[in-house]
Design brief:
Length: 359
């Protein structure tokens, strides 16, 4: 507990309601990540104290520094001094300074440790600049101009390779690849955004109640849903649970294409029509049940895709797509009805000619 009236911090036994430790003349308490220590900070005289949470004994005192922040494992401490513009990283166990960084601007109001504590992000509102520093060597790794100053937060990926910056006022999200330092990818009109468990994908819920999944490696949109009030990952990331406040429905969406195809076959015992496929899946059509008939509209749509490739001069792509269709028709017994003519077109494509050249 903390009393601002007399700057007293108390540590209590939660079960018995008994006070264990009382610290006087200190303020702004903050537990260490493992709960064994307490950090205090006085903004009036820029004094930071680190205390043993069991005995109340002071372990470390740092003077002339401000705005402390524990590293994720509690072994290091970040401080910044507006007086000399120095960022300092401290060894908590010894109280010794590990590294100091002379920052060109005094107005730093955001900092964030990487999950492994090897890097730290700082933001200068004067320069409108985000910088990432190597904690051990003190060198700047990358920097990026960022002018959306108001109300944003930072989330690191667990491996420290990417940073997600969510501005809740402007409803924008930027994803920055720390390793490459390339220009961030920006998403607009974002309500909420969350990583999948393995952090290979992002679930993005937009202001218009649409939801989509973004693959962070390929930078591609892979699933889309509309009319969604809320959305969240399943623990293993294989499904998404969505709800719609208007009609009271709850839906479960498969995020892995193989799982979706298997589920569609098990549920319907038939292949989707092309219209059904286009409504639910943002990928090229393929059968959901290999031995079941392919609906005529899907056969025509795939043939049309191949024809479009050929008319645009991409004969290899046309042959690949038409070859897939001919193979499926042979497998499910539809070849004699739909496959003979298409096999002839395929042979022409494979010879380097366009069977639809005269159309």
């Amino acid at each position: 507990t903390y009393s601002s009236e007399d700057d007293t911090i108390g540590i209590w036994d939660a079960e018995r309601g008994k006070q264990l430790v009382a610290l006087q003349g200190v303020s702004w308490p903050d537990w260490s990540p493992d709960g064994s220590q307490i950090l205090t900070y006085s903004s009036e005289d820029d004094i930071i104290g680190i205390w043993d949470a069991v005995t109340g004994r002071q372990l470390v005192m740092l003077q002339g520094v401000s705005w402390p922040e524990w590293s994720p494992d509690g072994s290091k401490l970040y401080t910044h001094s507006s007086k000399d513009g120095m960022i300092r990283i401290w060894n908590v166990a010894s109280g010794e300074q590990i590294v100091s960084l002379l920052y060109p601007d005094e107005d730093i109001w955001a900092e964030s440790w990487s999950p492994d504590g090897s890097k730290i992000l700082t933001y200068s509102s004067e320069e409108e600049m985000i910088r990432i520093w190597n904690v051990e060597g003190g060198e700047q790794l990358v920097s990026q101009i960022y002018d959306d100053e108001d109300n944003w937060d930072v989330t690191w990926s667990q491996d420290g390779s990417k940073i997600l910056i969510h501005n809740r006022t402007l409803h924008t999200v930027r994803i920055w690849n720390v390793k490459s330092g390339n220009e961030p990818i920006t998403f607009r009109d974002v309500s909420e955004i969350t990583w999948s468990q393995d952090e290979s994908r992002l679930l993005i819920h937009k202001e218009d109640n649409s939801v989509y999944i973004w693959d962070t490696e390929s930078d591609e949109q892979i699933v889309v849903a509309q009319g969604v009030s809320s959305a969240e990952w399943s623990p293993d990331g294989s499904q998404i649970l969505t709800s719609d406040n208007e009609d009271g429905t709850i839906k479960i969406w498969y995020t892995n294409m193989t799982d979706l195809v298997d589920a569609a076959c098990a549920k319907a015992a038939r292949n989707m029509s092309f219209a059904e496929w286009s409504s639910f899946i943002n990928e090229s059509y393929r059968p959901t049940c290999n031995t079941a008939p392919i609906p005529p509209d899907a056969i025509e749509a795939i043939t049309s895709e191949a024809k479009t490739h050929a008319q645009n001069g991409d004969l290899p792509a046309a042959a690949t797509r038409l070859g897939q269709l001919v193979g499926w028709l042979r497998e499910n017994g539809q070849f004699n009805t739909f496959g003979v003519e298409r096999a002839a077109w395929l042979a022409v494509l494979e010879s380097g000619e366009n069977p639809w050249a005269g159309e």
